[in-house]
């Protein structure tokens, strides 16, 4: 007889394997060389954030993450927080986007002292606009980071569900290489 633990392990590996073969909705709506699309969302303070107010002024690091207060997302956000001054000195604005409410983002930002903008995308309009795909048969929102130059042209994209802090390392590496 097969143990429950073994059965659960096999099921998890099966789901991961299927998600690699069938990753969900198509990616690559935004690719390297694309312009960051125009969008407006509410920030963690309930204020409207318009990307047009940033493009042309600063480099951009826009990262999409699954959910406030989850283990990987907290590690990622805190890693961005810990490098925030380095991004700032490099004239880069960091923006996190997920489907949670502005209130959830406010609590998340306060709880972890996050100094950057978090945007609420409850119907995933902006996530879809960028082409961020869900993982694990559509059950888990994607984790993707886009780096754009001051003109709003995407120069780098990094996607990894399992390496949340590497998003920060990769974004910082690219930002430092930009002139």
Could you walk me through the main structural features you see in this protein, from its secondary elements to its overall organization?
There is one protein chain. It contains 6 helices and 7 strands. The protein has helices at 4-21, 71-82, 84-89, 102-112, 125-130, 164-177; strands at residues 40-43, 48-50, 59-64, 92-98, 117-120, 144-148, 154-159. β1 (40-43) and β2 form a beta hairpin.
Per DSSP, the total helix count is 6
Number of strands: 7
Number of domains: 1
Provide the β-strand percentage band.
15-25%
Structural class: alpha/beta
- Distance from N terminus to C terminus (CA atoms, Å) equals 62 Å
Q: What low-confidence regions span 5 or more consecutive residues with pLDDT below 50?
A: 18-28
- Quickly give the CATH architecture: 3-Layer(aba) Sandwich
Helix content: 25-40%
Walk across the major sheet and give the strand order: 2-1-5-4-3-6-7
Query: What fold name goes in the CATH topology slot?
Result: Glutaredoxin
Main beta sheet:
7 strands, mixed
Mean pLDDT: 87
CATH H-level superfamily title: Glutaredoxin
Overall form = globular
Question: What assembly state would you assign to the polypeptide chains in this entry?
Answer: single chain
For the record, the CATH class is: Alpha Beta
Q: From the alpha-carbon coordinates, what is the Rg to the nearest angstrom? A: 17 Å
Listing every helix as H and every strand as E from the N terminus to the C terminus, the arrangement reads HEEEHHEHEHEEH
